[in-house]
Amino acid sequence: MDQLLRAEIEGVVGHTFRDPGLLWMSLRHASVTETRLDSNERMEFLGDAILGMIVCERIFHMYPNSLEGEMTKIKSLAVSRRTCAKLARSLGLERHIVVGKGMRTAERLPASLAAAVLESMIAALYLDGGMEAVRRFLEPLVEPLIRDAVRSGHQHNFKSVLQQHAQQEMGCAPQYRILDEKGPDHAKAFRIAVELDGAVYESSWGQSKKQAEQQAALNALCALGLIEQDADGESRLAVGVGASGEDGVVAVLADADSDSGSDTDSDGETGPVVAG
C-alpha cells in the first residue's frame, strides 16, 4: 500500500495499523478480487455488528429513560445505510475504495459501497487495535448522529409532539378543525387547521384527514417556535429548545412511522377532529 495513502487514512481513523494488510483488505471490493473471500465483505459483516453495538451502547447511556422500542427507532435513524454512506464520504473513505474499472464510470460510487467501506474499516480497526481503537474513532462521530436522530425523529409524528407540548406546557389538547373538503368520496381531500388554547393556526390540505392533520400540526409547531425548517424543507427542534423538548421527541419516536395515509388514528392521541 502506498505510504502516503496509508498515512492519510490512519490520520482519518486516528490509528496506526500494526498490520497494514487489514487496512488494505478493508478497501478491496469484490470486483477486484478473484474470490469474494479476498474482498472486504467479511469485514463489512463484522464492522456492521460492531457499529451497531457501539451505537446501541451510547443510546442506552445517553437516554436512560427510553424504552426498547424508542431506542431501536433512534438506532435505525442514526446508523441507516444512507447515514453511514454520508459519513464515509465526509471522512474521504469512499475515494479510496478499490473497485473494478467499470464501477468508476459514474460520478460517484453507490451509497451502498460507501456505507460498506465504513463498516469494513471499523472491522479493520477492531482486528488491529481492539475495541479501544474503535471507540476512539466512532464515539465522537456517532454521538452527534444519535442526537440528530432524536432531534429529527419527530418529523413523521408532528401530532404527537404537539399533543405532548400542549398537555405539558399549556394544560389543554389540540383540536383539529375541518375547514373544507373536496373531491369524490373515494378520493376526498381535506383542509384542516389546529385550534389550541383559543388560537387557530395556519390550515393545510391533505389527501386524507391524517395527512392534513400532520401538516396542520407542523404549522402550529412552527408558529409556536418549537420547530424550524431549513432550506431543504427538513424540520428539526428549534435551537434553544431544552432537554425536556428532546426527551419529548424521544418519547414519541417509537410511533414515528405509524402515520400513513390512513385516517385511522393509531397513535393514541386525544385531540378531536371537529367540523369547522
What this model shows, in words?
The chain is an alpha+beta fold. The chain has 2 domains: 3-153, Ribonuclease III domain (Ribonuclease iii, N-terminal Endonuclease Domain, Chain A), CATH 1.10.1520.10; 157-275, 2-Layer Sandwich (Double Stranded RNA Binding Domain). Helices cover 51% and strands 11% of the residues. It is built from 9 helices and 7 strands. It has helices spanning 3-13, 20-26, 41-62, 68-78, 81-91, 111-152, 158-170, 209-223, 243-252, and strands at 175-182, 189-196, 199-200, 204-206, 227-229, 235-237, 273-275. Strands 1, 2, 3, 4 and 7 form a 5-stranded mixed beta sheet that branches. A hairpin with a 5-residue loop joins strand 5 (227-229) and strand 6 (235-237). The model is unreliable at 247-270 (pLDDT under 50).
End-to-end CA span: 71 Å
Classify the secondary structure makeup into a structural class: alpha+beta
CATH topology of the largest domain: Ribonuclease iii, N-terminal Endonuclease Domain, Chain A
Strand composition percent = 5-15%
Which geometry do the CA atoms define?
A: elongated
Q: If you average the pLDDT, what whole number results?
A: 82
Largest sheet: 5 strands, mixed
How many alpha or pi helices? 9
**Helical residue percent band:** 40-55%
Low-pLDDT windows of residues: 247-270
Helix/strand order, N-terminal first:
HHHHHHHEEEEHEEHE
Rg computed from alpha carbons, rounded to a whole number of angstroms: 23 Å
Quick one: how many beta strands?
7
CATH class of the largest domain: Mainly Alpha
CATH architecture assignment name of the largest domain: Orthogonal Bundle
* Total individual domains: 2
CATH 4th-level superfamily of the largest domain? Ribonuclease III domain
Oligomer: single chain
